């Protein structure tokens, strides 16, 4: 029995050591991608948690502010959000990365009306 | 002697941990929407939090009927079959299983109510397990900016 | 007999749920008008995880780059992003896959709309 126990414990510790530092993807999402794809901006928030224990998730909404600061005079479109998790034995690091395209504000403002106008043009052409 | 020390260490960890973990927050998923450059100047921050325990099941049932219903949704609320079924769900889970998957359906309407006649941007959607002052449990939280 | 039973159980365990696909996350962005949903663009990328060791997370960027290449001059809307895992060996060996599917809207429609608005 003690041999089996030792075997299980060594397997678990071995697995933890082998997979230490491995990064796993938890979730991804992508918003509409603009045609203007000049400037790429990226921001991330990281949280180190002992045994995966955290008491709040208040760092995650700060990701929006961090990303906005990277593009102060424009709008950010085509945002790819990645949720990653890396474990280092008893410490888990949770990282959320957001990457998007910074486009000029007047172009972004046009985007909101453009699709509607394009659809109107199509309808008029049919009539 | 070694056994006593081992047991004391385990107890010394388990009991405090059981108190401490009670206030844990777990982040399951976060998702960002497009960011508008005007929001930092003209926007008003808004936030919505919903959890399974804050939803009126009667309202959820009405929504489900209007949307055509769902297999294990509002029509079988309170039905023991849905409880039984949940124990046999296989696959990755986002947090503790909930028995009514419709609880987040009201989020778009609630967001629209908080920004009447405006435009909602800079949205971040968070799926978490946490205890806020009023809302607790399995939570869907949406923080955004309303531009008028 | 015991050995045979153990072997049978081990084989069953190893092959059970093989090729099972589970969706880890899914998201969808704003969908364009019906008249604009003409050109569908798709991209996907995979990355294996062998005995719980993933090799990279760059496959997501690869899929995104392929998607952008499929619609180089337009903009992409109605994006369905799906992240799924296909299990090959009792959860120790699996394949991660990311799928993007969307509609490519040409820039011409935008240019015409802007010209009409200015005119």
Concise synopsis of the structure shown:
The complex is a heterotrimer of chains A (127), B (148) and C (119). Chain A has 127 residues and is of the alpha+beta class.
Structural commentary:
The complex is a heterotrimer of chains A (127), B (148) and C (119). With 127 residues, chain A is an alpha+beta fold. Chain A has one domain. Chain A has 3 helices and 4 strands. In chain A, strands 1-3-4-2 form a 4-stranded antiparallel beta sheet. In chain A, strand 3 (74-88) and strand 4 form a beta hairpin. Chain A is elongated and about 70 Å long. Chain B has 148 residues and is α+β, with helices and mostly antiparallel strands. In chain B, a hairpin with a 4-residue loop joins strand 3 (119-131) and strand 4 (136-147). Chain B has a 4-stranded antiparallel beta sheet, covered by helices on one side. The radius of gyration of chain B is 20 Å and the shape is elongated. Chain C is of the alpha+beta class. Chain C is 32% helix and 43% strand. Chain C is built from 3 helices and 5 strands, in the order H-E-E-E-H-E-E-H. Chains A and C meet through strand 1, strand 3 and helix 3 of A and strand 1, strand 3, helix 2, strand 4 and strand 5 of C.
Describe the protein's topology.
The complex is a heterotrimer of chains A (127), B (148) and C (119).
Chain A (H helix, E strand, L loop, with lengths): L1 H17 L4 E8 L8 E12 L11 H8 L4 E15 L2 E14 H22 L1
Antiparallel strand pairs in A: 1-3, 2-4, 3-4
Chain B lengths: L1 H19 L5 E7 L6 H4 L1 E8 L5 H10 L13 H7 L20 H8 L4 E13 L4 E12 L1
Antiparallel strand pairs in B: 1-3, 2-4, 3-4
Chain C lengths: L1 H14 L4 E9 L10 E12 L2 E2 L4 H12 L4 E15 L3 E13 L1 H12 L1
Antiparallel strand pairs in C: 1-4, 2-3, 2-5, 4-5
